[in-house]
Amino acid sequence: MSGNPGGDLIGALFQYHFMQNALEVGTLVALLAGAAGYFIVLRGQSFAAHMLSQVGFPGAAAGVLCHVSPVLGLVAFCVVAAVGITASGRRLEAGSRVESAAVGTILAFALALGLLFFRLYHGSVQSVYGFLFGTILGITDRDVTVTLVAAALALVALALIARPLIFASVDPDVAEARGVPVRAISMAFMLIVALSVAVTVQVIGTLLIFALLVAPGASAIQLTARPLLGLALTMVLALLFTWLGTAVAYFSGYPVGFFVTTLAFGCFGLLRVGRLAVGRLESA
Amino acid sequence: MPVSEALAFAGAGIRLGGQWIWRGVDVTVEVGEFVAVLGPNGAGKSTLLRAALGVLPLTEGVVRVFGRPVSRGNDAVGYLPQRRHFDPDLRIRATDLVRLGLDGASWGLPLPRWVPGAGARKKAERVDEVIDLVGAGAYARRPIGELSGGEQQRILIAQALVTGARMLVLDEPLESLDLNNQQAISALIQRICRQRDVTVLLVAHDVNPILSFLDRVIYVANGKVVEGRPNDVIRTDTLSQLYGTHVEVLKASDGRLVVVGQQEPVSYHPQPERH
């Protein structure tokens, strides 16, 4: 690889063990968050996903407070919230007005709880900061294993329910009549989202999670209306944002979350403006 | 039972939330018939369809579809639910929506047609075939949300037909369409009914656009159901007896039927009914 400046750069990236861990977990998280994100955008459940990520904050704090791992607390809170969202009924689902208001209220309460738990724990500002904005450069070998198992499970589950999930998302009445267990599928999907949130928080934190969970899907769905292509494109975009963001952060010394989010935002913004311009031209 | 029976309710009744929507329903629809389900808002027309699909279980009595007890997900039955339109932002192609009608209930990923095995090519050809049948080939690759109401309705009829359905269950397919599209869509449904011997069960709020096609009318009102030929059912004496109060059926000079004297006129539909 010597004599090749690009190769040297890549070599430098993998020089330290913490960077290997960061890139491994980043890759797994990007694949899972991307795949789940495509369906979140297709179903119009961005806000519900947002609530799940905010619920993760007090969850992690509660985990620390009870002397179990923060990730476990995070997963537990997210799962309860996911079940709660689905159990509150089909009418509350998929972007209705009632859902928005309910989700908004629960969201504020979740953050307040997180605040209290961290105060009770006498937690450092550093650990709060980690959960809000991610700690990808401090990932341990055990985190890598946990993420690998969680991501593999969630991705397999998602691949299994993909087709009925798309059907139930775009056309719930016909899907039900055709024998799709619409309620069970929604519940399963929210659980997958909960798991995705729990692992994604490590990389980018609860506040910036949309950069990986929603932005890639929102971009991809503007580029194609083909389901499988959209899904693949979402995963590729999430991977690109994560890799590039982490690499730039490594060399510049500024936070990973900022670069990943900026790339995601930039991509979405450009596509949006591009589509508007094309629409103008077509109608002109 | 006769072989030509497509749909039969016998002693059927549904109670929801402690109230009988309708009961004592005995209705038989023959294969290849074009049948309209009529009645005022909230009378239980959609409930009747949902029972015929097996989505809503009967409280008493039986429903048979092509001679067998009703079951959800029956390939012989195509369903088009009542709805206004798809979200304009829904980014999924019309052809994908039709394809979901064919295999959307089976597990796994939606694979494109160039993937070998699993009959992907055969399924894709079946999708193209029904899209051609409803004349939607020109816009089938565009996102469903970008299509007009009439175009969406054609796609949805293709979706309902794609499993090789021998009976179409259509909940207000003419609602929220302009007059031209109402005529085009009802002519399309009638053509499919006659040419392919597909039984059609269609909920309508206004009988007039389809009156000339109808073999049979099922009228739902006041917790009861009557059926028969359009001219025998949509009459002052039959409907008065059904409603339990005096209603009058008037025939306009252009042949249109108007039912007056009930709580609301039959051609007016302020909001979708939901049960």
Give structural notes:
The complex is a heterodimer of chains A (284) and B (275). Chain A contains 13 helices and no strands. With 284 residues, chain A is an all-alpha fold. The model of chain A has no long low-confidence stretch (mean pLDDT 85). The relative contact order of chain A is 0.16. In chain A, helix 2 (17-43) packs across helix 11 and helix 4 packs antiparallel against helix 9. In chain B, 28% of the residues lie in helices and 25% in strands. Chain B has helices at residues 45-53, 94-103, 120-133, 149-161, 179-196, 230-233, 236-243; strands at residues 5-16, 19-30, 34-38, 60-65, 68-69, 77-80, 167-171, 199-203, 216-221, 224-228, 248-251, 257-260. In chain B, the strands form three sheets. A six-stranded mixed β-sheet of chain B has the order 6-7-8-3-9-10, sandwiched between helices. In chain B, strands 2-1-4-5 form a four-stranded antiparallel β-sheet, with helices on one face. A two-stranded antiparallel sheet of chain B has the order 11-12. In chain B, helix 2 packs across helix 3 (120-133), helix 3 (120-133) crosses helix 4 and helix 4 packs parallel to helix 5. The longest helix of chain B is centred in the last third of the chain and has 18 residues, at 179-196. Chain B is globular, with a radius of gyration of 19 Å. Mean pLDDT of chain B is 87; it is low at 265-275. Chain A binds chain B through residues 42, 44, 159-164, 166-167, 170-171, 173-180, 221-222, 224-228, 230-231, and chain B through 53, 55, 72-73, 79-81, 83, 86-87, 90-93, 96-97, 100-101, 103-112, 142-144, 159-160.
